[in-house]
Design brief:
heterodimer, A: mainly alpha, ABC transporter involved in vitamin B12 uptake, BtuC, 13 helices, B: mainly alpha, globular
Chain lengths: 311, 365
């Protein structure tokens, strides 16, 4: 039994699961702020890619990782404001606007990576330092999982609570949800629907931009074209599977990121051959299942996807 | 006369101006990347049209865009946003290539249609999953088709990588066996790669136009797109129309996949995600969901796609530049208010913003 546990190594399994769930959770939180206010955000992928690129480029040229992280967040906000202008003010279909940003992000990061970074020879900025929280990190099991991480993972853990608090315990959250469920009623009650939606869309850019910084500044200390590899869409799936709640989205992200880890260990420990492709399908299939209402229905905010025209 | 002018404005002028504006935005990016936009664009043009065989190659690239653009456009007409064209493309390729390498020694006139039917059927079935989920459970097709895209990539990778399934014997990189010689689409111009699939794609345009505009199915499809409640009140089955529309859309996307196999690749590899799905949406948007409009839009995308690598070779501007151009073109097409503002048009055609006739929370008065 002990040998089996040693092989399975549950502590490192959970630790890696938490780390790889970081960008998924952050982008899902962003998508949630956006969708709760009534704006669909399929641009999470593009925002993360932009954040990863700008974060790395700024860190590379300033030799400062923290300025890089700030730049990733800021660039996420800027590209999200394009989504806001297009979908809220210009009444462009929100799916189209999100798609435009995804295509644009591939173009911008590809063009400028090739020009300014691909052949750069000086040393990269490295990765964000590991911080061990005094006392807490020496607790067995919990310590190594939660308290020996890097900045973006800590930030994610805090932001889950912050987003939960903002959405369900503040006036702003109430207004946000009102705009997502029934914008006309919200406007009648004196809420500026466009303003609420703008702020939420831009906030979602900040969260997804920070998620992007995970890839380039926390994980590998480099930028690679298209390095987000579709994880913006898995984040979208996590948001839906978590039924548009922060804690749910975090759980879904853990489930999705854990499934690859478990898959590889299944093979080494139990010698069970599950094709990795089947485990990879899990997030997508589960999302379809909850959308079909088979595992407790996932119900989107009522007005999500619809542009709102003022009277 | 006024109606005619409106049509000219919304179907010709706005897309045309959008394309010009898209290239202008691209030029800004080229300057920011430290290159000369004129040189980059003339290399792009040369790579797309005037180099040796370039025009034939552009038409080769245009072929899947025509079929995929039609696939998305037909969905738009019924108010459905099929982001899953890419997944249907791969499932169509998979089912079609399976037939095309399994059958041996029959004449082309038999093998090609069999493979085409298999490909279209694969795409149609895959897309109707999303249609059925929407019709039965109200699951939004945008989300389900995105999810199904990734599932299809993994299905393709599983089938192509696993010995005993579709993996060819004795190959260094995983791929399916080559298709039978009889299933290869004949060349149109000797010495080029331009194949009969281009003609098939051209034929699909009037067929899809006829289907949408002149048949009962097309009428139902448009009725559901305009107003589901009215369609239901008129006795149409909205659910069935949604599933059927998705199936038609998927069949076209599957056709794009199998035509690419039979005409260009001759086998399938496990490396997927060429980004066709998003490009297809862009083509349909630029075409204003009109089957005839799909042709010039697909030609533009085919030319960009084909010219980009020569541009990168000649001027060091990354081929990814065309993504910036494409994204900007869609912004200007989808937000006619910007074009109207640029040209100080009194009445910009704002009603075209509703791409899929989605409901707008607007005052009812």
């Amino acid at each position: 039994m002990s040998e089996f546990l040693q092989q399975l190594d549950p502590v490192s399994l959970l630790s890696i699961t938490l780390i790889t769930a970081t960008p998924l959770t952050l982008a899902a939180l962003g998508g949630m702020m956006c969708e709760r206010s009534g704006v669909v955000n399929i641009a999470l992928e593009g925002i993360m890619l932009t954040g990863a690129f700008i974060g790395y480029a700024v860190a590379f040229f300033t030799h400062n990782l923290w300025i890089g992280v700030a730049a990733a967040v800021l660039s996420g906000m800027i590209i999200a404001s394009l989504h806001a202008v297009l979908s809220i003010s210009l009444l462009v279909d929100q799916i189209v606007s999100g798609m435009v940003i995804n295509i644009m992000a591939v173009g911008i990061t590809g063009v400028f990576y090739r020009t300014y970074l691909e052949s750069a020879t000086s040393a990269g900025p490295g990765t964000l330092p590991h911080w061990n929280v005094p006392v807490l990190s020496s607790i067995p099991v919990i310590g190594p999982i939660f308290f020996e991480n890097q900045f973006v993972t800590y930030a994610m853990l805090v932001l889950i609570l912050v987003v939960h608090f903002v959405l369900f315990r503040t006036v702003w959250g109430l207004r946000t949800r009102a705009c997502g469920e029934h914008p006309r009623a919200a406007e009648t009650a004196g809420i500026n629907v466009h303003f609420v939606r703008y702020v939420n869309v831009i906030t979602s850019g900040a969260l997804a931009g920070l998620g992007g910084a995970y890839f380039s500044l926390q994980q590998i200390g480099n930028f690679l074209p298209n390095m987000t590899g579709g994880r913006g869409y898995i984040a979208l799936a996590a948001m839906i599977f978590g039924k548009w709640t922060p804690v749910g989205a975090f759980g879904a992200s853990l489930l999705f990121s854990g499934s690859d880890q478990i898959g590889s260990r299944m093979q080494s420990v139990f010698h069970v051959q599950i094709p990795l492709q089947f485990l990879g399908m899990l997030p997508y299939l589960l999302t379809i299942v909850v959308l079909a209402g088979a595992m407790g229905r996932a119900i989107a905010p009522a007005a999500v996807g619809r542009p709102y025209k003022k009277e | 006369m006024a109606g005619w002018r409106r049509w000219l404005l919304s179907a010709v002028l706005v897309p045309l101006v959008s394309v010009i504006c898209g290239f202008a935005v691209g030029a800004i990016a080229i300057v920011a990347a430290g290159a000369d936009p004129l040189m980059a664009y003339s290399a792009l043009f040369a790579g797309a049209f005037t180099n040796h065989n370039a025009l034939a190659e552009t038409l080769v690239s245009t072929t899947p865009y025509v079929l995929l653009g039609l696939a998305v456009a037909i969905g738009f007409r019924a108010g459905l946003f099929n982001i899953g064209a890419e997944g249907q493309f791969y499932i169509g390729s998979l089912s079609g290539v399976f037939v095309a390498y399994s059958i041996r020694g029959l004449p082309g006139i038999v093998e090609v249609p069999l493979a085409m039917i298999a490909g279209m059927l694969g795409g149609a079935l895959w897309a109707s999953i999303a249609g059925a989920l929407k019709a039965r459970f109200g699951a939004h097709e945008v989300i389900t088709t995105i999810m199904l895209n990734y599932v299809s990539f993994l299905v393709a990778s599983y089938l192509v990588d696993t010995p005993g399934l579709m993996l060819a014997r004795n190959v260094s990189t995983p791929r399916t066996p080559d298709i039978d010689a009889g299933a290869v689409l004949p060349n149109l111009i000797p010495g080029s790669r331009l194949h009969l699939g281009f003609v098939l794609a051209l034929l699909a345009v009037p067929i899809v136009w006829f289907l949408i505009e002149r048949t009962t199915i097309g009428f139902r499809l448009r009725a559901v797109g305009f107003n589901q409640n009215a369609a239901r009140a008129a006795g149409m089955s909205v659910g069935r129309t949604i599933v059927l529309t998705m199936a038609l859309s998927g069949a076209l996307a599957g056709a794009a996949g199998i035509v690419q196999i039979l005409g260009v690749n001759f086998h399938m590899t496990d490396t997927v995600a060429a980004g066709y799905g998003f490009d297809a949406i862009a083509v349909a948007l630029l075409a204003r969901s009109n089957p005839w409009g799909v042709l010039p839009a697909a030609l533009l995308f085919g030319a960009l796609h084909n010219g980009a690598s020569f541009m990168q070779l000649e001027t060091q501007v990354s081929a990814d530049l065309i993504s910036i151009v494409q994204a900007s073109v869609i912004i200007f097409v989808a937000a006619p208010a910007i074009v109207g503002w640029l040209f100080r048009l009194r009445r910009a055609p704002t009603e075209t913003v509703a791409i899929t006739q989605r409901e707008v929370d607007a005052p009812t008065t």
